[in-house]
C-alpha cells in the first residue's frame, strides 16, 4: 500500500508540475489568441493534480488508487487536448503535454495491458487534436507519433525490468530459499494485516516441529534432511487452503497461519498434516486460535509453542516405543530421496 501511495503521489506531483509549466507558457505568450481559455484549462489540470496529492495520503484500497489516478489522467488529457487545440492544433508547443503524460504513464505502470490501453488513449487524443486543429506540415504528425512510441517503449521496458527486479528482491527477502515457504519476515508481513487495528476472530495458527530431525541429518546426511523439509512444506500446503500461509521459522520448525479457521478446523488441519507425514517422519503440532488464545501473532505463537512442547513431553513418556521418525527414516524410506 505504501508503494502504491508513493506512485500515486509522484504521478499527481508530476501532473501539477507539467500544468505549471503550461501556465508559464501561456503567460509568456499572453497576447496570443485563446490564452484565457488555456489558462483556465491548465488551472483545472493543476487543481486535479493537487487533489490527487491530498488523496494519496488517505487512500486505503487498490481500487480507490486506480480510480483516482485514472480520473487525474483523464482530466490531464482533456486539458492537454483543449490547450493544444486552442493553440493551433498538432503543431502547437502545447502538444508536448501528450509526450510528458505518455512518459509518466510508461514510467509508473508496470502492468502491460493497462499500459497499452492508457498509451493508446493518449496517442489517440493527440491524433484527435491533429485531425480537428489546423493543418500541419507533411510528416509532422507521423514523426511526432513515432517519437512518442519510441519514448513509450524505452520507458515501459525499463519500468518492467525494475518491477521484475523489485519482485525478485521481495521474494528473496520474504521466502525461505530451500522450501519456498515464507521466512520470519514473510510471516510477519502476511499475518500483520490480519490482526492490525482489530481483534480478528477465527484466525488459527499451527506450530510444527519435526521429531528427531537431527538424527536424520546425522545418519542420512543433510541432503536427506533438506528433502524432508521440502516434503514437510509440500504436505502442509496440500492440507491448507490457498489463502493460508506456511512459514519456516527455524531449522525444522514451521508455522501455518489459517485464515478464518476456528479451533475445530485447526485440529482437523493438524491431523491432515500429521497423516500426510506419518509415513516419512513424526511431527509434533501445537495450535492456537484467536481471539481465545490471543489477538496478536506473537501471542498465538507462544500458546501454540507451549502446546507443541506438551505434545513432545507426552511422546517422551512413551520413549520405550521405537521413534517413528528416527527408526522409520533410518530404515530407508523409499520416497525420502525425492522432494
Architecture blueprint of SSEs:
Blueprint: H1 2-28, H2 35-56, H3 62-86, H4 96-108, H5 112-132, H6 140-174, H7 184-195, E1 204-210, H8 213-220, H9 222-239, E2 245-248, E3 253-258, H10 263-277, E4 283-289, H11 297-317, H12 324-330
Antiparallel strand pairs: 1-3, 1-4, 2-3
Helix pairs in contact: 1-2, 1-3, 1-4, 2-3, 3-5, 4-5, 4-6, 5-6, 8-9, 8-12, 9-10
Describe what you observe in this structure.
With 339 residues, this protein is α+β, with helices and mostly antiparallel strands. It has 2 domains: 173 residues; 147 residues, Alpha-Beta Plaits. The chain is 66% helix and 7% strand. The protein has 12 helices and 4 strands; from the N terminus they run αααααααβααββαβαα. It has a 4-stranded antiparallel sheet, sandwiched between helices. Strand 2 and strand 3 form a beta hairpin. Helix 1 runs antiparallel to helix 2, helix 3 packs parallel to helix 5 and helix 8 runs parallel beside helix 12.
Structural Rg: 30 Å
Q: What kind of sheet is the major sheet?
A: 4 strands, antiparallel
Mean pLDDT over the full residue set: 85
**Major β-sheet strand ordering:** 2-3-1-4
Shape: elongated
Beta-strand content: 5-15%
Order of helices and strands: HHHHHHHEHHEEHEHH
What is the end-to-end distance? 36 Å
Tally of alpha and pi helices: 12
Total domains: 2
Amino acid at each position: 500500500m505504501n508503494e502504491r501511495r508513493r506512485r500515486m503521489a509522484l504521478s499527481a506531483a508530476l501532473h501539477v508540475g507539467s500544468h505549471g509549466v503550461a501556465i508559464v507558457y501561456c503567460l509568456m505568450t499572453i497576447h496570443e489568441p485563446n490564452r484565457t481559455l488555456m489558462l483556465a484549462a491548465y488551472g483545472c489540470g493543476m487543481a486535479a493534480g493537487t487533489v490527487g496529492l491530498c488523496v494519496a495520503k488517505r487512500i486505503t484500497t487498490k481500487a480507490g488508487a486506480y480510480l483516482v489516478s485514472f480520473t487525474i489522467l483523464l482530466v490531464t488529457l482533456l486539458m492537454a487536448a483543449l490547450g493544444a487545440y486552442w493553440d493551433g492544433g498538432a503543431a502547437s508547443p502545447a502538444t508536448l503535454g501528450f509526450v510528458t503524460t505518455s512518459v509518466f504513464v510508461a514510467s509508473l505502470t508496470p502492468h502491460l495491458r493497462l499500459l497499452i490501453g492508457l498509451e493508446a488513449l493518449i496517442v489517440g487524443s493527440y491524433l484527435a487534436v491533429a485531425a480537428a486543429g489546423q493543418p500541419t506540415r507533411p510528416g509532422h504528425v507521423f514523426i511526432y507519433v513515432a517519437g512518442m512510441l519510441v519514448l513509450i517503449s524505452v520507458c515501459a521496458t525499463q519500468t518492467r525490468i525494475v518491477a521484475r527486479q523489485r519482485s525478485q528482491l521481495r521474494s528473496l527477502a520474504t521466502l525461505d530459499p530451500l522450501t519456498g515457504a515464507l521466512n520470519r519476515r514473510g510471516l510477519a508481513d502476511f499475518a500483520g494485516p490480519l490482526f492490525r487495528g482489530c481483534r480478528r476472530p477465527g484466525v488459527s495458527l499451527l506450530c510444527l516441529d519435526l521429531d528427531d530431525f537431527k538424527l536424520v541429518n546425522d545418519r542420512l546426511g543433510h541432503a536427506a534432511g533438506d528433502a524432508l523439509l521440502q516434503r514437510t512444506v509440500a504436505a502442509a500446503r496440500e492440507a491448507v487452503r490457498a489463502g493460508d500461509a506456511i512459514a519456516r521459522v527455524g531449522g525444522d520448525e514451521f508455522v501455518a497461519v489459517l485464515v478464518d479457521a476456528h479451533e475445530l478446523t485447526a485440529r482437523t488441519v493438524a491431523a491432515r498434516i500429521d497423516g500426510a507425514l506419518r509415513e516419512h517422519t513424526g511431527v509434533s503440532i501445537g495450535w492456537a486460535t484467536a481471539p481465545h488464545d490471543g489477538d496478536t501473532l506473537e501471542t498465538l505463537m507462544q500458546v501454540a509453542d507451549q502446546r507443541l512442547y506438551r505434545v513432545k513431553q507426552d511422546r517422551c513418556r512413551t520413549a520405550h516405543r521405537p521413534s517413528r521418525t528416527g527408526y522409520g527414516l533410518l530404515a530407508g524410506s523409499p520416497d525420502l530421496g525425492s522432494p
